[in-house]
Every structure is written in structure tokens, then in C-alpha cells.
Amino acid sequence: MQPYFYPYLGYFDLINYSDKWVVFDTVQYIRHGWMNRNRIVNPNGGWQYIIAPLKKHSRNTLIKDIEVMDDPGWHSRILGQIQHYRKAPYFTEVYRLMEECLEIRESSLSRLNVAILCNVCRYLDISFKYEFYSEMDLKIGQIEGPADWALRISEAMGAGEYVNPPGARNMFDEAKFQELGMKLTIRELPVFVYECGGFEFVPGLSIIDVLMWNSPEQIKNYLDFHEVESNAVEI
User: Per the structure, how many domains does the chain have?
Assistant: First the structure.
């Protein structure tokens, strides 16, 4: 998976389900995605973006080479944007967690995002065993299309199962995984509905929103025991 910025709960469902996580950082960075921004609730209704501003880069820059702005003012801006959560039951703990994340002195966007993922996983007691693909020196076969990256990386790692979110459901050729003795699993996390102190509930927001209103134990329990909608090809 590409490294996202404070991603939604479904991203952590994948981490919680996986034995090994590959940070896919050797493809072109795409603007207006989830790698340098995400959404939190807007006190006036709906949602608003939190954004990690980036240094100027060419259109063809790889994810691993994207850098965040040196100006720490954006850290303060994000911490200011979450002040309306003050009455949330876990505001103090989550605010402290975000301070720790934003204090990380890392110019690489992908490494900053992975450091944030590590901190959130630690808070939720989720095992997160990751490697950056750019550092793995894997010998993979021919790549004929975007979907082959997952197939070939999994094959080179000797994986028995590959898991992905539902957005890529139609991209993969299940037969190719079967031929290599692998199971392809598409996991779709049911919407985790929770009380949010009078604010409008908006599904699919950043993990920040989930953390503010729910204890780490509640969240981990949901990830461990929810009934997931899946499309699995058994070998």
C-alpha cells in the first residue's frame, strides 16, 4: 500500500489483518490523493481537510522522493484544527499522540506517514511489521500492468495470501493469484458508527476522528471481531 496521512479506519483494518506490510513507495506520486491530506469533522457541518504541505516537485517524482515543507507552522495549524474536539472523551490522549507525531523531524513524506502509522498502531496495540519496497531488493517477475505489482511482490516474498481494500476489487485477476497458490482477499470494513458529541457523524474520516470518540480497546476490539465483507479466492 502507498503510505497515507492519518488514514481512515479501514487502512488500520488491513494492517491489523496482515502479517507483513509493504510500503509501496517507488511509483509516481499522484496529487489530490490521501498521502498528504485527510479529513476530519468540521464543527460547522460536514468535513474539512488537514494537510501536510509539500515542497515543490516535478510531476514525475516518485513517492519516496516527495518531501514535506520545512516550516513547522503547518503542525500548529493542524493542532489548531482539532481544538473543536476538546469535549471528546479521548481528546487529551489523542492530542498528545498527535503532538508526538508532528514533532517527528522527517523531511520524507512517506517516512513521516509511516512514523505516524507506527505511533497510532502502538496506541491501538496493533502489530505493524513493515518494509519500504524501495529498500527490499526483491527479484520480481515481469510487470505487465499496475495490478501485477501486488502479485509479483507477494510471490517474491513467498506470501500465502494478499489482502487489499475494495477500491481495487476489479483491478486484480484472481486466476493469476490462484496459479501461484495464493489467496486473494478483498476486505471491506463495515462502517464503524459511533456517537460524536453532537457533531455530525461522517463515515470514512481520518483515524483522528475515530480516536477522539472511542477508546483504544473499543477500536481494537472492533477490528478484531467485526464481521467483514470479503471476497476471497480459496486455494
Answer: 1
Please report, for residues 49, 107, 110, 224, the alpha-carbon distance to residue 26 in angstroms, rounded to integers and kept in the order given: 26, 17, 11, 31
Helices (H) and strands (E) in the chain, counts: 8, 7
Per-residue pLDDT reduced to its tens digit, 20-54: 999 999 999 999 999 999 999 999 999 999 999 99
Residue 4 belongs to a domain = no
The predicted-structure confidence for 96-113, as pLDDT tens digits, reads as follows 999 999 999 899 999 999
- pLDDT value for 226: 85
Q: 143 with 26: CB under 8 angstroms?
A: no
DSSP state of 62: B
Residue 196 lies in a domain: yes
Cα–Cα distance list, 19 to 4, 12, 16, 160, 187 (Å): 19, 13, 8, 11, 15
Q: How confident is the model at residue 232 (pLDDT cuts 50, 70, 90)?
A: very low
The one-letter amino acid code at 150 reads: A
Side-chain-facing half-sphere of 149: CA atoms under 13 Å = 15
Cβ–Cβ < 8 Å for 84, 43: yes
Neighbours of 13 (CB within 10 A): 23
Whether 217 shows a pLDDT value over 90: the answer reads yes
